């Protein structure tokens, strides 16, 4: 599947996201939120995001993962973007290394140039994640806005909020359930593991001392080469080893689950309960239905514990609160 390079080439998914919105806390968010306050906001994010991914095709995955980590910890309030400071000595970002912070700042700067002080970093991240699906996945959909930026970020909030790669399906369902997301959402969103990169440190637990029998033998052999025992955990491997382009967001992930060609226990375990195995099969068989589910679930995720109205603030820069903390 070739990368879609413009909105014109991307499949436009409608209605489904609206349906998801009605059933979640994101009801307080609004489609086209910046219609009157900054009509070019979403266009400015899209332009900047497209430019970044054109320059480095791995960046779509970075934006989508940042959005996931933002939303699962303290809600989608851009707390993941705050740098260390006197009032935030141990921000979230110190807990788990993520990519794309500078790129998000670049997108925010592009939006500030159009409408200073109007568009939140939390919304910038939500729009950038949506636009990453457009560029890297070839489908697009409406993402509501109106999130406000939080004032705090605490590393300790990560624990118990972000699921781990060795979790089993029931634990994952519990983790997503705690955020108001269903098993269907879990399975649909896990498709994000069709693109991007992973560090060897997350893979070696399934290789040593003995290869996990649920891991495809061919893939295990290539991973042993890429991530030798005792080697640097910081080496990166592609999330999706079964297709030629690891930068494409697609339902290939669900086909890989059938052949054991996924990196984490938290991926493979989705085939171990009858209900989620059925969802995996459906997503493998029908790419457009998966896109619709992914879009709906990303909108739903984007509504987790959001700050709205006069809560929080609209940050000037994404790495610091306006009081400079
Ligand atoms: C179901 C529970 C999940 C677990 C246990 C999990 C775990 C992980 C881990 C361990 C990595 C590798 C990180 C690294 O080596 O730097 C990763 C990468 C990634 N995850 Fe997840 N994840 C989960 C759900 C999600 C969701 C819901 C999304 C987004 C919708 C997502 C998007 C990504 C992306 C795009 C990458 C690649 C990032 C990059 O290229 O830098 N993940 N995930
Ligand atoms: C976005 O890019 C298009 C095409 O290059 C350009 O015409 C438009 O002015 C840009 N919009 C913003 C808000 O930067
Ligand atoms: C493992 O992956 C290879 C390469 O894609 C594939 O040919 C093989 O059928 C897979 N093995 C199993 C048991 O699914």
Automatic annotation (TrEMBL):
<feature type="disulfide bond">
    <location>
        <begin position="38"/>
        <end position="115"/>
    </location>
</feature>
<dbReference type="GO" id="GO:0046872">
    <property type="term" value="F:metal ion binding"/>
</dbReference>
<feature type="disulfide bond">
    <location>
        <begin position="200"/>
        <end position="227"/>
    </location>
</feature>
<feature type="binding site" description="axial binding residue">
    <location>
        <position position="193"/>
    </location>
    <ligand>
        <name>heme b</name>
    </ligand>
</feature>
<keyword id="KW-0964">Secreted</keyword>
<dbReference type="GO" id="GO:0042744">
    <property type="term" value="P:hydrogen peroxide catabolic process"/>
</dbReference>
<dbReference type="InterPro" id="IPR019793">
    <property type="entry name" value="Peroxidases_heam-ligand_BS"/>
</dbReference>
<dbReference type="InterPro" id="IPR000823">
    <property type="entry name" value="Peroxidase_pln"/>
</dbReference>
<keyword id="KW-0575">Peroxidase</keyword>
<dbReference type="InterPro" id="IPR019794">
    <property type="entry name" value="Peroxidases_AS"/>
</dbReference>
<dbReference type="GO" id="GO:0006979">
    <property type="term" value="P:response to oxidative stress"/>
</dbReference>
<feature type="signal peptide">
    <location>
        <begin position="1"/>
        <end position="26"/>
    </location>
</feature>
<keyword id="KW-0376">Hydrogen peroxide</keyword>
<dbReference type="InterPro" id="IPR010255">
    <property type="entry name" value="Haem_peroxidase_sf"/>
</dbReference>
<comment type="similarity">
    <text>Belongs to the peroxidase family. Classical plant (class III) peroxidase subfamily.</text>
</comment>
<feature type="binding site">
    <location>
        <position position="163"/>
    </location>
    <ligand>
        <name>substrate</name>
    </ligand>
</feature>
<keyword id="KW-0408">Iron</keyword>
<feature type="domain" description="Plant heme peroxidase family profile">
    <location>
        <begin position="28"/>
        <end position="322"/>
    </location>
</feature>
<dbReference type="InterPro" id="IPR033905">
    <property type="entry name" value="Secretory_peroxidase"/>
</dbReference>
<protein>
    <recommendedName>
        <fullName>Peroxidase</fullName>
        <ecNumber>1.11.1.7</ecNumber>
    </recommendedName>
</protein>
<keyword id="KW-0106">Calcium</keyword>
<feature type="site" description="Transition state stabilizer">
    <location>
        <position position="65"/>
    </location>
</feature>
<feature type="binding site">
    <location>
        <position position="92"/>
    </location>
    <ligand>
        <name>Ca(2+)</name>
    </ligand>
</feature>
<comment type="similarity">
    <text>Belongs to the peroxidase family. Ascorbate peroxidase subfamily.</text>
</comment>
<feature type="disulfide bond">
    <location>
        <begin position="121"/>
        <end position="318"/>
    </location>
</feature>
<dbReference type="GO" id="GO:0005576">
    <property type="term" value="C:extracellular region"/>
</dbReference>
<dbReference type="Pfam" id="PF00141">
    <property type="entry name" value="peroxidase"/>
</dbReference>
<feature type="binding site">
    <location>
        <position position="77"/>
    </location>
    <ligand>
        <name>Ca(2+)</name>
    </ligand>
</feature>
<feature type="binding site">
    <location>
        <position position="79"/>
    </location>
    <ligand>
        <name>Ca(2+)</name>
    </ligand>
</feature>
<keyword id="KW-0732">Signal</keyword>
<feature type="active site" description="Proton acceptor">
    <location>
        <position position="69"/>
    </location>
</feature>
<keyword id="KW-1015">Disulfide bond</keyword>
<comment type="function">
    <text>Removal of H(2)O(2), oxidation of toxic reductants, biosynthesis and degradation of lignin, suberization, auxin catabolism, response to environmental stresses such as wounding, pathogen attack and oxidative stress.</text>
</comment>
<dbReference type="InterPro" id="IPR002016">
    <property type="entry name" value="Haem_peroxidase"/>
</dbReference>
<keyword id="KW-0325">Glycoprotein</keyword>
<feature type="binding site">
    <location>
        <position position="75"/>
    </location>
    <ligand>
        <name>Ca(2+)</name>
    </ligand>
</feature>
<dbReference type="GO" id="GO:0020037">
    <property type="term" value="F:heme binding"/>
</dbReference>
<feature type="binding site">
    <location>
        <position position="73"/>
    </location>
    <ligand>
        <name>Ca(2+)</name>
    </ligand>
</feature>
<keyword id="KW-0349">Heme</keyword>
<dbReference type="GO" id="GO:0140825">
    <property type="term" value="F:lactoperoxidase activity"/>
</dbReference>
<feature type="binding site">
    <location>
        <position position="70"/>
    </location>
    <ligand>
        <name>Ca(2+)</name>
    </ligand>
</feature>
<keyword id="KW-0479">Metal-binding</keyword>
């Amino acid at each position: 599947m070739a990368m879609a390079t413009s909105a014109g080439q991307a499949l436009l998914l409608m209605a489904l996201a609206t349906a998801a919105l009605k059933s979640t806390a994101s009801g307080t968010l609004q489609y086209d939120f910046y219609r009157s306050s900054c009509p070019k906001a979403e266009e400015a994010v899209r332009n900047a995001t497209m430019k970044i991914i054109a320059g480095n095709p791995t960046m779509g995955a970075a934006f989508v993962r940042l959005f996931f980590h933002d939303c699962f910890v303290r809600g989608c309030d851009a707390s993941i973007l705050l740098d260390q400071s006197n009032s935030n000595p141990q921000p979230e970002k110190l807990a788990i290394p993520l990519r794309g912070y500078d790129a998000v700042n670049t997108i925010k700067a592009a939006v500030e140039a159009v409408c200073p002080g109007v568009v939140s970093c939390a919304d910038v991240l939500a729009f950038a994640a949506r636009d990453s699906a457009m560029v890297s996945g070839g489908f697009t959909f409406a993402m509501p806005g109106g999130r406000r930026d939080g004032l705090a970020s605490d590393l300790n909030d990560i624990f118990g909020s972000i699921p781990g790669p060795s979790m089993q399906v029931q634990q994952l369902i519990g983790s997503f359930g705690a955020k108001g997301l269903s098993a269907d959402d879990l399975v649909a969103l896990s498709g994000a593991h069709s693109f991007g990169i992973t560090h060897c440190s997350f893979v070696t637990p399934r290789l040593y001392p003995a290869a996990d029998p649920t891991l495809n033998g061919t893939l295990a052999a290539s991973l042993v080469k890429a991530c030798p025992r005792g080697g640097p955990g910081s080496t990166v491997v592609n999330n999706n080893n079964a297709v030629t382009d690891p930068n494409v967001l697609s339902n290939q992930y669900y086909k890989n689950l059938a052949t054991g060609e996924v990196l984490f226990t938290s991926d493979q375990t989705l085939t171990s309960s009858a209900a989620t195995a059925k969802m995996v099969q459906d997503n493998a068989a029908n790419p457009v239905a998966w896109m619709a589910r992914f879009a709906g679930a990303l909108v739903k995720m984007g509504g987790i514990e959001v700050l709205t109205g006069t809560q929080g603030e609209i940050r000037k820069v994404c790495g610091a609160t306006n009081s400079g903390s």
